[in-house]
Write a structure and sequence with these properties.
The structure is a single chain. This protein is an alpha/beta fold. The chain has two domains: 242 residues, Type I PLP-dependent aspartate aminotransferase-like (Major domain) (Aspartate Aminotransferase, domain 2); 68 residues, Aspartate Aminotransferase, domain 1. Helix content is 38%, strand content 17%. It contains twelve helices and 15 strands. A seven-stranded mixed beta sheet has the order 4-10-9-8-7-5-6, with helices on both faces. A four-stranded mixed beta sheet has the order 1-2-3-13. It has a four-stranded antiparallel beta sheet with strand order 11-12-15-14, covered by helices on one side. Strand 7, helix 8 and strand 8 form a beta-alpha-beta unit. Helix 2 packs antiparallel against helix 9, helix 10 packs parallel to helix 12 and helix 11 packs across helix 12. The longest helix has 27 residues. Bound molecules: pyridoxal-5'-phosphate. The site of pyridoxal-5'-phosphate has 15 residues, from helix 4.
Length: 398
């Protein structure tokens, strides 16, 4: 597998020729059920007619005008994000890491604008993932992503997962806020307890701290609510979105309240491509579907159904599956065997999954799947587990 691409990814040796809904068809004709969905990006699956139509229509209008002019498509998408969330204002970027950069800058600038520029530090949590730019690798705190890239961007203090006492202890006169993914993705699909999120909101309010949510993976309907934090009945001051928002077209968004964004005045931040007409048009088309009556409820229902199937598999194959966790259609299966072996076995059954930390395999299907797809995935996982269990018994007997 030689190519001129940076070898920064351990790619599977498959190229896909076609996609339709949750299906991907490889160049050799093999048909895969896509529960990777481009890492939670293809919220509406492949080739969704409404998205294709929106992109084709946008392609016939000016593709790009820059943020030096009004972009009605971006204004429209921003208003719809505001109407659907806690936010008053939106900044568009092109990726999750860039949305996070804007979130971090917004939080820092808020305090600087109030005359407290020394308050720039954010408290983060073990297992976090916020992107691969210099600031976001520092925020994530994973040494594997930080090492070798020079001085680490300052301003992030990491505490153990969901440990409120540790958060309180970490607050100093330099603390600007607290940053977390309501459902950790990359780190292993850990769901912050709703009770913890509510207590954290109260703590931030009491101490004048901003609460910043990275909903790049768990937002835009993935968990059965538009934002995952809605499960806890609380709202952040700032939130980053990206993956599912464009349904496959690159777009990121930083959402904020008027108050939190008050330092972000003219000239303080920018992006050449952010919110360009193509991205904004597709983002609006995604929202047409995700915010339509009954859609999020159906995500939650299908999530429950898939969860029952996964829990049954765990019961049946306790030597293979240790834990099933997640919310909506965002699942982590923690395996007792190396997670890569589990993902390979699933792929041999023509089911695509994504690896995560903590020996977890992620199932992130398109939000548009139906019961038939869930049954099919369960059958494939059952076959994978059966094969893995019999091969580990054989190994044990040998
Ligand atoms: C993927 C991801 C990011 C980074 O997004 P990119 O588009 O790869 O820059 C940030 N935060 C979370 C929670 C993510 O899952």
């Amino acid at each position: 597998m030689n190519s001129a691409l940076y070898p920064t990814y351990a790619r599977a040796d498959i190229a896909f020729a076609r996609g339709e809904g949750p299906w991907l068809i490889a160049a050799n004709g093999d048909q895969y059920l896509d529960f990777a969905a481009g890492v939670a990006v293809l919220s509406l699956g492949h080739g969704h007619p409404h998205l294709v139509a929106a992109l084709k229509k946008a392609a016939d209008a000016p593709w790009h005008v820059s943020n030096l002019f009004r972009i009605p498509q971006a204004e429209d998408l921003a208003q719809r994000l505001v109407d659907a969330s806690f936010a008053d204002l939106v900044f568009f970027a092109n990726s999750g890491a860039e949305a996070m950069e804007c979130a971090i800058k917004t939080a820092r600038k808020y305090h600087a604008h109030q005359g407290a520029p020394q308050r720039y530090r954010l408290i983060t949590f073990e297992g976090a993932f916020h992107g691969r730019t210099l600031a976001t690798i520092a925020a994530g705190g994973n040494p594997k992503y930080i090492e070798g890239f020079g001085p680490v961007v300052q301003g992030f203090d990491q505490v153990p997962f969901a440990d409120l006492a540790a958060v309180e202890a970490a607050i100093t006169p330099e603390t600007a806020g607290v940053l977390l993914e309501p459902v950790q993705g990359e780190g292993g699909l850990r769901v912050f307890p709703h009770e913890f999120l509510r207590a954290l909101r109260a703590l931030c309010d009491a101490r004048g701290l901003l609460l910043v949510f990275d909903e790049v993976q768990c937002g835009v309907g993935r968990t059965g609510k538009f934002l995952a934090c809605e499960h806890a009945g609380i709202a952040p001051d700032i939130a980053a979105l990206a993956k599912g928002l464009g349904g496959g077209f690159p777009i990121g968004a930083c959402l904020a309240t008027h108050e939190a964004a008050k330092g972000m005045t003219a000239g303080t931040h920018g992006s050449t491509f952010g919110g360009n007409p193509l991205a904004a048009s597709v983002g609006a088309a995604v929202l047409d579907v995700v915010l339509a009556e009954g859609f999020l409820e159906s995500v939650a229902q299908h999530g429950e159904s898939l969860k029952r199937r996964l829990l049954a598999l765990k019961e049946r194959y306790p030597s293979i599956i240790e834990d099933v966790r997640g919310e909506g259609l965002m699942f982590g299966v923690k395996t007792r065997i190396p997670n890569g072996d589990f993902a390979t076995a699933a792929r041999d059954e023509k089911l695509l999954t994504v690896l995560a930390g903590d020996n977890v395999v992620r199932l992130l299907p398109p939000l548009t799947i139906n019961q038939t797809h869930i049954d099919e995935a369960a059958t494939k996982l059952e076959a994978a587990c059966a094969r893995l269990a019999s091969s580990s018994t054989q190994k044990g007997a040998a």
